[in-house]
Write a structure and sequence with these properties.
With about 350 residues, the chain is of the alpha+beta class. The chain contains ten helices and eight strands.
């Protein structure tokens, strides 16, 4: 009986060992199958997802660095990677178009600048050819008007000569302004600097517009602060600036009005010269147009006045050549105030001036 029990136990033990071996190999097979599936998944993801994303990321870096010549890959895919590739391609195409437009703009700008320089150089070189005959016409018209070599006969001839002289002077002034602007554009305007007495300068320019003011019935007023320092500047150009401003002020001020010229130091110690009038003025939105070359404010009040619209732009550019500024404020039917400001660097105390103040006449 005992022998039979031992035999039965041994049989069960051998059966357990066999089952354990089967379970072991089954588990090993499952692990290997899982590893194989994992490796397959990794390879699939690497080929179908990671590699395309890496390629697209590299293309994005190229695009960011300006490399726009190569198309974005994987655009034909229907999944999210394809959507990403097509979106990047749209971005690349837009960047290409923007670069093409920028190149065209640069080329157009360079061509326009070259054309402008050629025009400015041409006009600057035409100074002698344009001015000489005009001066001759004006001179001979004055001889005829004053009957220097004898009477002309009919009084109408004197009137005609006066018209010729007046028209010639107007045309000469216009040509001078155009040529001055052309020389400024061409960089051919050089300042001949000297020390100027501001009060004497103001007196000189006001004297030069006295006749025009008297003919228009306009009162001139001078107000210059005492003890102003000397101004280191080009006397001819500063006179030109102030004469342009005063002539405009007198021209657009009706009879009975006032044009004033004031000079003082502002709170920054700069020299401010102000030309103010009680004329027709202009709307604030028209001021930028008035400061443009050939800018004419669209107003029935101003169309009756002569002028090509070069006085203010020329004065502004000459002030900038001196390192200064020109500002304008105005309102309709009230008047206009133009302020030219010279920097502190251009002011010289009279006690330390190295040369005497030069008369601005």
């Amino acid at each position: 009986m005992a022998d039979a029990a031992v035999t039965l136990a041994e049989s069960y033990s051998s059966g357990d060992e066999g089952n354990a071996g089967v379970r072991f190999y089954e588990s090993l097979g499952g692990v290997l199958l899982f590893l194989g599936f994992g490796i397959f998944s990794i390879l699939y993801v690497a080929r179908r997802v990671a590699a395309p994303i890496g390629s697209i990321a590299q293309q994005m870096r190229f695009v960011a660095e300006g490399g726009l010549d190569q198309e974005v890959p994987y655009q034909n895919r229907a999944d999210e990677i394809g959507h990403l590739a097509r979106a990047l391609e749209v971005f690349r195409t837009n960047a290409l178009e923007k670069r093409r437009i920028e190149v065209q703009l640069i080329e157009s700008k360079e061509a326009a600048e070259a054309s402008s320089r050629a025009k400015s150089n041409f006009l600057a070189n035409m100074s002698h050819e344009l001015r000489t005959p005009l001066n001759a016409i004006i001179g001979f018209a004055e001889l005829l008007e004053t009957e220097t070599f004898g009477p002309l006969g009919s009084p109408r001839y004197r009137e005609y000569a006066e018209v010729i002289r007046g028209s010639g002077r107007h045309l000469l002034g216009l040509i001078n302004d155009v040529l001055d602007l052309s020389r400024l554009d061409a960089g051919r305007t050089e300042l001949v600097e000297e020390n100027l007495g501001v009060d004497q300068l103001a007196e000189t320019v006001l004297t030069m517009v006295e006749q025009q003011a008297a003919e228009n019935g306009v009162k001139l007023v001078k107000d210059t602060a005492r003890g102003l320092p000397l101004l280191r500047a080009d006397a001819k150009r500063v006179r030109q600036i102030l004469l342009n401003l005063l002539s405009n002020a007198v021209k657009f001020t009706p009879s009975g009005g006032t044009v004033s010229l004031r000079a003082s130091l502002n709170i920054l110690g700069e020299l401010s010269i102000v030309v103010a009038d009680t004329g027709i003025g202009m709307a604030p939105q028209d001021i930028p147009k008035a400061l443009e070359r050939f800018g004419q404010v669209d107003s029935k009040l101003t169309r009756k006045f002569e002028g090509a619209g070069l006085g203010l732009p020329l004065a502004k550019q000459l002030m900038e050549l001196h390192g200064g500024t020109l500002t304008l404020t105005s309102s309709l039917n009230t008047g206009t105030v133009v302020t030219v400001t010279f920097p502190v660097e251009r002011l010289v105390k009279e006690s330390v001036a190295r040369e005497p103040a030069t008369a601005a006449s």
